[in-house]
Amino acid sequence: MAIFSQDALNPGVKKREVFGWAMYDFANSGYTTVVITAVYATYFVGGIAQKAEWATFAWTLALSISYAIVMLTMPSIGAYADMRAAKKRLLMIFTAGCVVGTLGLAFTGPGTVALAFCLIIISNLFYSYGETLTAAFLPELAKPDALGKVSGWGWSFGYFGGMLALGICLGYVLWAQGQGMSADQFVPVTIVITALIYGAAALVTFKLLSERAMPKPDAMQTSGFKASFAQLKTSLAQLKNFPDFKTLLLCAVFYQGGVMVAISIAAIYAEQVIGFQPQETMMLIFALNLAAAVGAFAFGYFQDRVGHKIGLGVTLLGWIATCAIAALTTTKGGFWYAAALAGICMGSSQSAGRAMAGLFAPQAQLAEFYSLWGFATRLASIIGPLAYGSMTWATGGNQRMAIASTSVLFIAGLIVLARIDVERGKGCSCLIGWDS
């Protein structure tokens, strides 16, 4: 098809390899859709924690701890991956870790708060590592002027993976409910389904995706992590050479914090505030993923046409409107509108940010700079959901106030985005060496 043009790819890159790369988005989307958003999040709050006042806070705290670990460790892992040309090898290890951790969630139930809490930290930790590493392949595959559309291909295809996992789980849940089963019986099965789809789809990535980077000569002269920390220290000290990349990181801290609220809280809000039933929530999230797939795919072309900065700004305006609708609506129909808009904005904003980071990152240090990008997005993942959970707890469960306040994060992101000079950022990415 012409829309998947070979002209968008770097010399020597075949479409089958891009398909393999996109399959990782397809693989891991089931985890975020079923575990973090649609099924296990609400089960943790309502089933495992028995709707305690602190339940939502505990859920956001578990996610925040995992993101804090990623934030502190991913930059050195990225430096190690660059020096040893080990992105693909590490991606395989992290995928296995997430699949095993997810399978462990199937053994949790009412009263096992501590076990569920720890397993969420473990599974989400390995998921986050994998998500960051797969993003670092993007500039190796796509030409600079096509980063938006190729990133959109991956994100949109990924949402279909989430819909596949959720669709199978929804079919099973409806059957199980018809048999009189309780959530304690059918939720563990949905977790197993999700883990198996993740592992099976990722095998396609490992088969088709190549490691194009070459080990750096000095990486073999000392221990891997010692060398990686030394390079990381240099990178952080010299980040002043990349002012627009630094500004983009700050922008991401704000707006990704709001996006993570939507990902981790949407199902909880739908059931606890609007009154959705579990099967209705799963249908809602399914539709949200469909909207996100369309948004990510179409917006990639829009972004390459109008520019990354304008494109990202448009999505942030959409997020502000989403927060307002969600906070004000009192009906299921009204919340469906908010979810549809959130889906479009979710796919487009995440794709836009990943592409923009690739535009500003130096080619010699893609994994390391995407790890710095991961550092910012994981910091956002702590700030957004934890602030939401804290406000909900502090106000005695007023989630409307919490979702309304989330708009402040998107407004701050817009303000910071205005400071970015795209052409200057592209120029800095061409720097060959570091200033001493």
Find the CATH superfamily.
MFS general substrate transporter like domains
Average pLDDT for all residues: 84
Per CATH, the class reads Mainly Alpha
Gross morphology: globular
Distance between the termini: 48 Å
- Proportion of beta-strand residues: under 5%
What is the helical fraction, as a range of percent?
A: over 70%
**What ranges have pLDDT less than 50 throughout 5 or more consecutive residues?**
220-224, 432-436
Mind sketching the topology for me?
Elements: H1 15-38, H2 40-48, H3 55-84, H4 87-105, H5 113-135, H6 138-141, H7 147-178, H8 183-208, H9 224-237, H10 243-274, H11 278-306, H12 308-328, H13 332-360, H14 366-394, H15 399-405, H16 407-417, H17 422-428
Helix pairs in contact: 1-7, 1-8, 1-10, 2-3, 3-5, 3-9, 3-14, 4-5, 4-8, 5-14, 7-8, 7-11, 7-13, 10-11, 10-13, 10-14, 10-16, 11-12, 11-13, 12-13, 12-15, 12-16, 14-15
Describe the protein's architecture and organization.
- This protein has a single domain (14-210, 224-428), classed as MFS general substrate transporter like domains (Growth Hormone, Chain: A, Up-down Bundle), CATH 1.20.1250.
- The chain contains 17 helices and no strands.
- Helices cover 79% and strands 0% of the residues.
- It has 436 residues and is mainly alpha-helical.
- It has helices spanning 15-38, 40-48, 55-84, 87-105, 113-135, 138-141, 147-178, 183-208, 224-237, 243-274, 278-306, 308-328, 332-360, 366-394, 399-405, 407-417, 422-428.
- It is globular and about 60 Å long.
- The model is unreliable at 220-224 and 432-436 (pLDDT under 50).
